[in-house]
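Subject: mismatched residue count in predicted assembly?

I count 776 residues in my input, but I want to confirm that the predicted structure covers every chain. Input:
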Amino acid sequence: MGKKAAIIHSAIEVFQEQGIEKTKISDIVKRAGIAQGTFYLYFPSKLSLMPAIAEVMVAKTIEIVKDTVDNDASYPKQFEQMVDAIYEVNREYYEILAVIYSGLASTEHIREWESVYAPFYEWVSEKLEAAKKEGAIRQSIKPDRTAKLIIGLVESTAEQVFLYAQHDENEANRQKEEVLEFLAYALHFQNVEG
Amino acid sequence: MGKKAAIIHSAIEVFQEQGIEKTKISDIVKRAGIAQGTFYLYFPSKLSLMPAIAEVMVAKTIEIVKDTVDNDASYPKQFEQMVDAIYEVNREYYEILAVIYSGLASTEHIREWESVYAPFYEWVSEKLEAAKKEGAIRQSIKPDRTAKLIIGLVESTAEQVFLYAQHDENEANRQKEEVLEFLAYALHFQNVEG
Amino acid sequence: MGKKAAIIHSAIEVFQEQGIEKTKISDIVKRAGIAQGTFYLYFPSKLSLMPAIAEVMVAKTIEIVKDTVDNDASYPKQFEQMVDAIYEVNREYYEILAVIYSGLASTEHIREWESVYAPFYEWVSEKLEAAKKEGAIRQSIKPDRTAKLIIGLVESTAEQVFLYAQHDENEANRQKEEVLEFLAYALHFQNVEG
Amino acid sequence: MGKKAAIIHSAIEVFQEQGIEKTKISDIVKRAGIAQGTFYLYFPSKLSLMPAIAEVMVAKTIEIVKDTVDNDASYPKQFEQMVDAIYEVNREYYEILAVIYSGLASTEHIREWESVYAPFYEWVSEKLEAAKKEGAIRQSIKPDRTAKLIIGLVESTAEQVFLYAQHDENEANRQKEEVLEFLAYALHFQNVEG
DNA sequence: AATGAATGAGTATTCATTCAT
DNA sequence: AATGAATGAATACTCATTCAT
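Triage response: the counts match. Full output below for your records.
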């Protein structure tokens, strides 16, 4: 019946509405339509919910990024699409993402963090690898490391804009432009088809 | 005297030692050597401590950055020194910084965050402005926006390394190298004296 | 079973023993044999206990009054018995009654007070109605209003005697005599069987 | 300068506005325009303020009663004026009087209560004595005891009306009428000048 | 697997009172 | 007499977790 999924789904919604600190287990189970005790059949504690949510959020991000990026477009275009997608996800889920970024709210679950983010790093890394092979970006790029740089760069600026500038669309777009130009120079895009 | 400062100082220490969640007001006042009630003469609540702590930490960061950066060195060198300094601060205070990020994000003190970080943004912005004027970096750089990019980039990667990779020095240095190269291309350093 | 009743019962006892101000929730639950949190499943706050206690006390008063009054006796005799009964209850529960008066008055539970006292007013009112019909008291009596007068009169003098005169039995009896005579004239008892 | 009087005056005002439970010493001294510590130069504790307030309130009541009652009027008229006056005071100060009636909110100061109320009892008692001497009321009246009865009767019904019926003027007047008639029969007014 | 009533440890906050100035 | 910063004891209430059904 997917009660586990129901709990995660419910938690994401409630967290978004009232913040994580103020959310009680009872709020989550109420919305999920299950009993208080049932929660503990699927999660050993409240905190153990976090990695599961992070996983879902990262998966959601990857999905949107994949859907947005056109693999047949030029690499500059593809990275632009990627930045667009990440900004989009942040626009919608800025509050819950803030918690995920800040280390899952406690240092207990740090180990899991790496594994949760791994698929995202990997996807960007592969994209960089391919671009490098085709000579579309500078050859000194180390895909694995740069993947982390790029994700850190884009997400931290997106967070700044949506969390602290409170959804000023103009501001968001201008900052995104700057990120794209910054990224273009940093990767040193080559006109491959020249 | 300076009980407010004593509280902040004490709180930073205790937070570092046992994490924010597990820290009681009583722990903070005990170390500060004041009475429980005195805390509330200076701060209306436990959470309202956060922006004050953040302010101190940012001030500390700026101070270290300023001390490390040699204004007479070449700009690439200066930015390298800046990255070194930021990594240094994160190495030492990674836990309290994580706490600040999450503490500020999860409460209603977000507005204050901008003003707390402002002096840091400003310093980097001025540095970029000067470099731009001297033709040391590409002219399309917008100092204000790029300052935020750079700080976001450096801090997020530093956090990744020290919080999640748990102080692997090798890893830290390699990642820092990649950041520096990334930054060099992104700013498009010019050999001014050529 | 009956945890709500257990809480009320326990609270009445503890209040009587140590006064309301000095009674902690923990005292109440300890005696009731339940956990601290369980209290809040049945009452939203400490103060919300008061109307429930008042209800029980008024019910107890009515019960004793009904038990004491002989419906076949003459009306003067019946009212004498009623006064006796009210004095009796005040003798035994003077402290908790003072608490209820002050507890109810000083909070926002005033509205409930009326409904709590209603059955007592009603009982006296019906008694007056019957007496009036039989011509045992003056015909200008308005039962509803006079019921409130009588209860106010008797309870306020009983409170004066037991709370302030500290259980001086002689004093109590003399004052009761005066009340009865006062009441006799006020109601203008008629010798019905004359 | 009358700081003691200023404190009492201020306390009465604040109590009326926000209730006694919710009033802090700091509220009282703020309005009185004095420092926190100064309070304790005049009163040893918060609770010790109560009898002083009661004294002022009773004095105020007596004053208004004396001002209202025309000593040259007939006794029925005089008692009517007295009831009017007591209702008037209760209309204005119902909240603070509720606390005073209910035993000064705690049983600590009971002894003082009697002495505080004494002058009021005395005044009524003397009035009854005089009326009795002139044959204006029944000769079986015991002035001392009946004084307490009358004050208890009038004040308790006034309280019922103003505290619980929430200032319904119509209700107040009808109830007052009933009290007067009740009183007239109870005292058994004689037409002295017949 | 599911329930939800019951648990009880845990702590931020208040505010009457003190006392050095 | 006056101040007001400092004190610290005292406790109502919350909510994650358990467990009998």
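Residues 24-26, 36-37, 39-40, 45-46 of chain C lie near DNA strand F (CB under 10 Å from a C1'). Marking this ticket as 'not a bug'.
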